[in-house]
Amino acid sequence: MFRPNNPDIDFPGLQAAVLRAAGTRRNTDVPPLVDTPAALEAEADTPSASGWRARLRAVPVLGGVLAYTRRGLLAATAPGISPRARVRALPFLGGALGWLHAWATLPRWRRQLRDEVQVLREQRHAMQRELDELRRAQGDLLRDMGRLRVTLAERQRGEPARRSF
């Protein structure tokens, strides 16, 4: 609720902007701008729209069911959501349809997972083969390095080099 405490504010323009913004939101219960004490008193005398909702929510089972249904319907009718999200937001039916969709697409997910695991298994085997080849090459290089060290040591001492290659 806005009160005119600043004479520089354009209240009709602000009211129009608030109403425009409220039209694009889900919760459109925006109170109008009130700028007179009489309007404030009249507004205080009107019963609250949420009073009956609060009384219904207080009923143990019925309140929860009604609140769940209202939230679902508000979510299903909200602007800018996909059709799939609208169906999932439907009270009672949306959850069941989502579960059925997941159950129906389970074979496809299993097939995709199996294919991905097979690809990963093949990549692991290829990397293991490459690692084994690199280790063999490293062993060969270390043997050659050892022979070259022996040959170098013999040449430095002046002994004739042996042919071991």
Describe the structure.
By secondary structure, the chain is an all-alpha fold. The chain folds into 3 domains: 1-46, no CATH class; 60-104, no CATH class; 109-165, no CATH class. 72% of the residues lie in helices and 0% in strands. The relative contact order is 0.04.
Point out poorly predicted stretches: none
Largest β sheet strand count, sense and barrel closure = none
Secondary-structure-derived class? mainly alpha
Please tell me how large the radius of gyration is. 39 Å
Number of helices: 7
Distance between the ends: 96 Å
Which structural traits does this protein have?
165 residues, mainly alpha, elongated, coiled coil
Layout of secondary structure:
Blueprint: H1 11-23, H2 37-45, H3 51-58, H4 60-76, H5 83-89, H6 93-104, H7 106-157
In short:
This protein has 165 residues and is mainly alpha-helical.
